[in-house]
Each structure stands twice: as structure tokens, then as C-alpha cells.
Amino acid sequence: ATTLGASAAATGRYFGTAVAAYKLSDSVYSTILDREFNMVTPENEMKWDATEPSQNSFSYSSADQIVSHAQSHNMRIRGHALAWHSQQPGWVQSLSGTALRNAMLNHITNVATHYKGKIYSWDVVNEAFADGTSGARRSSNLQNTGNDWIEAAFKAARAADPAAKLCYNDYNTDGVNAKSTAVYNMVKDFKARGVPIDCVGFQSHINSASPVPSDYQANLQRFADLGVDVQITELDIAGSGTAQANTYATVVRACLAVARCNGLTVWGIRDSDSWRSGDTPLLFDNNGNKKAAYTSALDALNAG
Ligand code: G3I
Description:
The protein is 39% helix and 17% strand. It is built from 11 helices and 9 strands. Strands 1-2-3-4-5-6-8-9 form an 8-stranded parallel barrel, surrounded by 5 helices. The longest helix has 18 residues, at 97-114. The structure holds ligand G3I. Ligand G3I is lined by residues 43-44, 86-87, 126, 203, 234, 275.
């Protein structure tokens, strides 16, 4: 096929992008979005600071804009993110203990209920493990409410929206390493104890310090073998030209080689839309022209 979304769909997968609500009125942006992608992730609009700016007072207008755009263009939606140590509103940062735990559960219940039936998969918990070799949980206010906070979050999300796939999402978990193995052990434990979890998201922010690991595909496969789906959730690859193009193809091929890899999402449309625009890490240049990386990703999808 001739677009990313249609080519991914021919393999039973989706091809998505992060979207910012305020850019939907930019016609260069929305033309590419509507032509190429069949999944969207709100880049910031579903985060805690955006959806519950003060306690128990919910604000969905920006996220709803993305959801209605997606629905009217037959795109699926990845919800991002229900519980995360970052981008918490100030009132959350000043809570602890039972009050924080209950606030988190109330947040998850309200947001997942608001979008019930509309979300393909939710990042229920984002970035809860520490970097480095400890394999430990990240220290955070949520972790301080008790080690069971992650499973409590997944149970609340399942109760609110039983149809959504529930994902754990993280970075620096793309290859087999101490951090990804800690996540792997958590997923294995959740499956053994019947804690609801359906998928694991691999952010895949790639640069020269953090290249595609040689065991990237094997790592996706070991999670799939636990009985969960896997998704590439925030893909961007620093660089340009042939090297960047080849790396995009490598990532696409890894997903296509894993039956339970549902699809890929790039973290923005044009290089200028990226959270790290200086790395020119996306598939379209600042003017919305297709880069070599685009053609390479498309060709890899069509070869699958
Ligand atoms: O909305 C405010 C605006 O009111 C204010 O005037 C402006 C001034 O700085 O800031 C705006 O908020 C910014 C927000 O993006 C919306 O543009 C924040 O400062 C900025 O920190 C925030 O950055 C986002 C970042 O997450 C925050 O952690 C990026 O756009 C977003 O791409 C990035 O995405 C994360 C994923 O959620 C999780 N994985 C890593 C990934 C990259 O960091």
C-alpha cells in the first residue's frame, strides 16, 4: 500500500503517531495525519496534569478534541498515561500515603470511564522502573504508597474499561537488560497471579547513545511469550539520511517479525513537532515532506 497506516493494516497492525490537540488546525499537519496514520496517542492531553488540574475536577476538552478527530477519521486511540511520576498536577505532588493512593485510583477510574469503549490500549502505568542495573522500581511518590501500586492501577483500569488493552509502558527497556528484565519479571508475576495486564509498550527513543539493541526483536518476543501483546509506542530515531532510514526499517521489521506486536507509533509527525526536534528524529521534515526514513519504513511495512 502507499501509506503507513494502510501498509501496516495489510499486516494486521496499525501505524500511529503522537498528536497535539493544538496542532489539529494546522492543515499541513492534519493532512499528513489523516493520510498516513490509523492510530493516535495524545502527546500530553490525557496526562494527569491535563485531565485533573484540581482534585476531582476533570478537564477533558483537549483530549476530547483528539478523540473526536480520531473517531471521525477511523483512527484508533492509545490512551497515555493514567499513572506516572511525571506531569502530575501540583495538588498530587503534595499528597502521600493513602490520600495519594486513593487519588490515583479515583483518577484512573474517572479518566478510563470517560473514555470507556473508545480506547484501543491504555498506558496504565508509565516509566515505573529505575534506570541502570538495579532492576528496582523508580523511587517516586506513587512507589512510596506501596509496591502494589502498579497492580492496583491495572485493576482500577480494568474495572473502568474492560475492553481496553491495558499496557505497561517504559523506555530503556528495548533490549534485554536489567531494567527490561525487571519489567519482564513483573509481567510474569502479574500473569501468574491474574493481575490484569494485556500489553507492554516499548517507547524506543533511539539515538547514538541508545541505539537499537541487537536483541530488540528477541526482547519483544520474550514478552510476547509471556502471553501479552507488545507495541512500539514512542518511536523516534535521531539522525538523518540513509543511516536513519535503515534504523527505521530495522525497528519496523522487528515488530513485523513478532506476531504479537500490534503496531508502531512514532512520537510526532514532522521533525519540528518532536520533543527533541534538534535530533530530526521523525519521518517528515519541518515542511511536511517525506524523508528517506519515511520511504524506508513504508518499504519495510510493504515487504512484511
Ligand atoms: O502546556 C504548557 C504551556 O501552557 C506552557 O506555556 C508551556 C511553557 O513551557 O509548557 C507547556 O507544557 C509543556 C507540554 O509539553 C506541552 O507542550 C511542558 O512544558 C513540556 O514539559 C511538555 O513536554 C512533554 C514531555 O513529555 C513532558 O514530560 C512533551 O511534549 C512530550 O513529548 C513528552 O512525552 C514523553 C512521554 O509522555 C513519556 N515518555 C517520554 C516522552 C518524551 O519525553
